[in-house]
Each structure stands twice: as C-alpha cells, then as structure tokens.
C-alpha cells in the first residue's frame, strides 16, 4: 500500500513539473546571465547619447545665428 | 431671435433658388441612378449583405461630395459681398448646414429607394437602417459644408475638397457602416445605441466648431 | 544653461529608459516574451505625436486670436515634427506586429485610425502648399487644423474602444495596468514617455527657430 501511494505521489509530482515546464515563458535569460546584454545596452546608449549631443550642437548653432 | 430669422430667410432663399432651377436635385438624381446602374451592370446581383451595405455607402459618399462641394462656389463674389453687408457669418454657415442637411436627406432617401429597387433589399431592421441613413446624411452635410467652405478659399477646388474631406469623413463612415450592418442583420437595437450616441456627439461637435471657426474664414 | 535644463532632462530620461528597459525585469507573458520591452520605445512615439499635434492646435487657436504669424509657424512645425514621430510609431509598430500578430498590418482599428490621422495631417500640409498668400494660408490652415483635431481624437480614442482591437485596453483585452502586475514597468514607461515628449518638443522648437531665421533673412534681401 505504502509503495503504491509513494509511486502515485511521485507520478503526481512528475506530471506537475511537466505541466509547470509547459507554462514557463521563454525569456532571454542566457543573454542576461552571460552579461552580454550590456553590450546591446551600450551600443544603443551610444547611439542615443550621440544623437542628443548632435541635437545640442544644432541647438547651439541656431542660437549663434539668432544672436547675430 | 434675430439670428434665427436670418437663418430661416437664407434657407428659404436657397430652397427657392433650388426649386426654380432644380439643377442640383436633377443632376444628383441622375448621378445616383447612373452610378447605381453602373454597379448593377458590374455586379448583377449582390448576395453578400456586407457588400450591399458598403456599395450603398460608397455611392452615397460620392454623391454627397459632389452635391455639397458646390455649396459655396456657386455663390458669386458679388453676392458674397452682399451677404457680408447684410448678415453675419454665423447665420450663413448655419443656413448652409441646414440647407445641405435638407438636400442630403432628400438625396439619400432617393438613393436608398433606387438602390433597393434595383438590388434586392436584404435589410432586417428597416427603421434602424433608416435612422442610420438619416444620421449619415446629416453628418455628411455638417462635415462637408465646413470643408467646402475651407476649400472654396483655395483655387483648385475639387481635388483639395476630396483630400481635406476624406480623412475627416472616414471615422464617421466606419461608425455608420457598423451601425447599418447591425440594422441589416436585424440585431437587437440596444447594441446600436453606442454608435448612435457617437454619431450624434460628432455632429454636435462639428456644428459648434463650424460656428466658431467660420467667422475667421469669412472675414477674408 | 538655465533654460536648457529640460533638454538635459529629456536626454537623461530617454537614456535611463533605455538602460532600465533592457536590464529591468518584465512580466513573463506568452507570445510577447521579451518583446514586451517594446512598450518603452514604441508607445512613447504615439504619445509624443499626440502632444505635438495638441501643441499645433493650441497654436492655431492662438493664431486665430492674435494674427501673429509666429504662432502659425509654430503650429506647422509642430505638425511636421509630429508626422516624423507618427512614421516612427507606424514603422516600429509594424515590426512588432510582424512577430507577435503574424503580419505587419493586421486589420486593427488603432492601426487604421492612426493611418487615417496621418492622412489628415498630410492633407493639412497639402492645403498649406495649395495657398500662396501668407496670411490667407495661415488662417485657412489653422481653421482646418482645429476642425480636424476633435475628429482625430474620436478616431484614436473612442472608436478602438467600441470595436475589437488587438491592442491592450480595448475590445476585451486586458489593459496595460493589468499586464504589469509587479508595477515595475510603470516608472520606466512614464519616464520614457516624458523623455520622448520633451525630445519632440525640443526638435519642434529647433525647427521653429530655424524657420524664424529663414523668414528674417528673406526679409532682409
């Protein structure tokens, strides 16, 4: 009796974990854990900050023209 | 009360002018009948109710654009100057909107009758469909009157009219087609109350905005 | 530098939203997976577009009241900048829709609405081109701008709520607030929105000042 119930419990747990695995959503955890996501962030940050610096220089140029 | 009296006189004047020449009504009548007939030749029968509905609204849309785009152009420069000296801009835009609404209601009833005679009429809820047609013609009239006022100030009229009017009318048309589809399928009337309310609200908004903005257009 | 603090703020907010948007935790959702992070970049485009159009309408009203040609220039430059943001919103939305909904242009009321709104503002620019005289052009296009704006608001806000939409918050879909259960996304999202709106306003003012300079040099000649 004990053996059967143990086996049943085992089965239940196995089924549960199988279902749980089905429910997980695939996320890019590998990219994050290896730290390579920072490369992507760095690249995009460079572009964004570069764009803003560029905007600032345009702004300055316009200001110079206005002051003339 | 003064404004109301002026509006009444102006609407009567437009109606009488129209009655004497019967130009707009006759040409629109022919236009509607010939487009319906062209569609009939092309399709023979329209079994799909969705298609039936879409075709009807397209015919009505182009007929109304043609009817209303002339509403400001037909007035000569001197006559406008004369109006300018005797009435205010508010009376003029209101009278134009009312006149165009009357014209459009008449036109859409004719269009609906000819259309449903030539094509088989699959409407499930006749009253609701009629309400949709009525609301549609009123909203076409209110929107197109103002847009034709704007486009009459530019030189090349017809293209500008179409370009300006279509983006403004499409949202209304989406609601109208949805409402009339409900009527075609004979759904419960409670479902369509939201659409009717949206249409009425848009009409109220357009009329008030026209009243507010037309004086600026007029003062040219 | 006293007047420029908001430009620096815009740069900081957008950069911060980039970092937090890539690194920070997001709710794990089916179909969307990691692409939920697009919320930080795609949605602010639409918000900045709407704010720019709103600025344009406000300046059109101001123009009709005052007759000052500067207000008209501000209105048209706001529309010009808003259209750029609108195209960014459409392009990014199409890329995102392609992987989540299976096609770049699903028949969705929000998509169609934004396309029609684009047409409306392109029509505004065409109308401006059709008129030569400066005063008349300013006045008539201001009238059209004010006339079209409420209908655009109906188009973008009320119609999608009436019909089924794939976008969150309409047609039985859960809203953004329900998706974001741990409330982590909210601050990042709002900072991104504010940052991009400020950026849009900044670009708009630069264009406005350039236009004023052009006008000035034309007058001198």
From TrEMBL, chain A:
A Pfam match: CcmD_alt
Top-level taxonomic group: Bacteria
Keywords in alphabetical order: Membrane, Signal, Transmembrane, Transmembrane helix
Protein name per UniProt: CcmD family protein
Region forming the signal peptide: 1-20
TM region(s), chain numbering: 36-58
Automatic annotation (TrEMBL), chain B:
A Pfam family of this chain: CcmB
Chief location bin: membrane
A GO cellular-component term linked to this record: membrane
Family: Belongs to the CcmB/CycW/HelB family.
Entry protein name: Heme exporter protein B
InterPro entries, sorted: Cyt_c_biogenesis_CcmB (IPR003544)
Any one biological process term the GO annotation gives: cytochrome complex assembly
Cell compartment(s), UniProt: Membrane
Transmembrane annotation, as ranges: 23-43, 55-73, 93-115, 127-147, 159-177, 197-218
This protein's UniProt keywords: Membrane, Transmembrane, Transmembrane helix
Topology class, membrane: Multi-pass membrane protein
Highest taxon listed in the record's lineage: Bacteria
GO molecular function: heme transmembrane transporter activity
From TrEMBL, chain C:
Keywords, sorted A to Z: Cytochrome c-type biogenesis, Membrane, Transmembrane, Transmembrane helix
A biological process from GO: cytochrome complex assembly
Locations listed in the record: Membrane
One Gene Ontology molecular-function label: heme transmembrane transporter activity
Any one Gene Ontology cellular component term annotated for this protein: plasma membrane
Bilayer-crossing regions: 45-61, 73-91, 111-130, 142-159, 188-210
Family annotation (InterPro entries): Cyt_c_assembly, Cyt_c_biogenesis_CcmC, Cyt_c_biogenesis_CcsA/CcmC
Superkingdom per UniProt: Bacteria
Topology of the protein relative to the lipid bilayer: Multi-pass membrane protein
Domain Cytochrome c assembly protein per the UniProt entry, residue ranges: 35-157
Pfam family, one: Cytochrom_C_asm
Family of this protein: Belongs to the CcmC/CycZ/HelC family.
Role played: Required for the export of heme to the periplasm for the biogenesis of c-type cytochromes.
PANTHER family cross-referenced by the UniProt entry: CYTOCHROME B_B6 PROTEIN-RELATED (PTHR30071:SF1), HEME EXPORTER PROTEIN C (PTHR30071)
Protein name: Heme exporter protein C
Species: Sphingobacterium alimentarium
